[in-house]
């Protein structure tokens, strides 16, 4: 299983699918809610919204629950790209190893960066 370059909390852009004028989500941006590495999918806020029909029931207070609920469905990770924080455009992700000195000790740290601008993520 390959290591995923997108993490929870990242802002991503959908790069495939139907165009927005035809009711699709292509080029929409949103924040990653969850990452599922076993299926290589991500859940993005406001993208790939589907309607779920849930069975009607009653809560403890007697109010009705259920009906038609609109929620996000997972998208394959190859269909999204990270958004560059500087240019606000889609970019690839790179990693580099830096040495950091803390408390007199040197540590090697892996840092993610946007390939478009070179800024750290």
UniProtKB/TrEMBL annotation:
InterPro entries, A to Z: Rib_uL2_dom2 (IPR014722), Ribosomal_uL24 (IPR003256), Ribosomal_uL24_C (IPR057264), Ribosomal_uL24_KOW (IPR041988), Translation_prot_SH3-like_sf (IPR008991)
Domain of life: Bacteria
Keyword Ribonucleoprotein part of the UniProt annotation: yes
Keywords for the protein's UniProt record, in alphabetical order: Ribonucleoprotein, Ribosomal protein, RNA-binding, rRNA-binding
Domain Large ribosomal subunit protein uL24 C-terminal: 47-120
Region (Disordered) residue spans: 48-71
UniProt keyword Protein transport present: no
This protein's GO CC annotations: ribosome
Known partners and oligomeric status: Part of the 50S ribosomal subunit.
Annotated HAMAP family: Ribosomal_uL24_B
Protein family (similarity comment): Belongs to the universal ribosomal protein uL24 family.
Function of the protein: One of two assembly initiator proteins, it binds directly to the 5'-end of the 23S rRNA, where it nucleates assembly of the 50S subunit. One of the proteins that surrounds the polypeptide exit tunnel on the outside of the subunit.
NCBIfam families, per database record: rplX_bact
Name listed for the protein in its UniProt record: Large ribosomal subunit protein uL24
Organism expressing this protein natively: Kineosporia succinea
Encoding gene per record: rplX
């Amino acid at each position: 299983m390959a290591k995923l370059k997108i993490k929870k909390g990242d802002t991503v852009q959908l790069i495939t699918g139907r165009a927005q004028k035809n009711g699709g989500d292509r080029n929409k941006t949103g924040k990653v809610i969850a990452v599922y590495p076993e299926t290589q999918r991500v859940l993005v806020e406001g993208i790939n919204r589907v309607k779920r029909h849930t069975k009607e029931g009653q809560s403890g207070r007697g109010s009705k629950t259920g009906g038609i609920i609109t929620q996000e469905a997972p998208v394959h990770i190859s269909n999204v790209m990270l958004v560059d924080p500087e240019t606000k455009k889609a970019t690839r992700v790179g990693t580099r190893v830096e040495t950091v000195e803390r408390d007199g000790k040197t540590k090697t740290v892996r840092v993610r960066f946007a390939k478009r601008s070179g800024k750290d993520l």
